Amino acid sequence: MKMSSAKNGRIRRPKRISVSEILRAAYRKFSRDKFTRRAATLLSR
User: Fold this and answer.
1) DSSP letters along 2-44, please?
2) What is the C-alpha separation between 23 and 29, in angstroms, rounded?
3) CA–CA separation, 12 and 15 (whole Å)
4) What would the pLDDT profile of 11-26 be if each residue is shown by its tens digit?
5) pLDDT surpasses 60 at 1
6) What residue ranges do the domains of the chain occupy?
7) The pTM is what?
8) Rg of the chain over all Cα atoms, to the nearest angstrom
9) How far apart, in Å, are the Cα atoms of 8 and each of 15, 18, 20, 34, 42?
């Protein structure tokens, strides 16, 4: 049982999830930068 619990803990937070989270954060930042740039261009005009 102890070994199975350790395995579950390892599988609970795999590296793939962390990578996907980082990619999501990067995408959000990129989209936000694009939106801010658009707003800045509209305001400057």
Assistant:
1) HHHHHHHHHHHS-HHHHHHHHHHHHHHHHHHHHHHHHHHHHHH
2) 10
3) 10
4) 566 667 688 888 888 8
5) no
6) 16-45
7) 0.40
8) 20
9) 14, 17, 20, 40, 51
**Is the C-alpha dihedral spanning 20, 22, 23, 24 positive or negative?**
positive
End-to-end CA distance of the chain: 66
Sign of CA dihedral 35, 40, 43, 45: negative
* Distances from the Cα of 20 to the Cα of 10, 16, 23, 24, 40, angstroms: 17, 6, 5, 6, 30
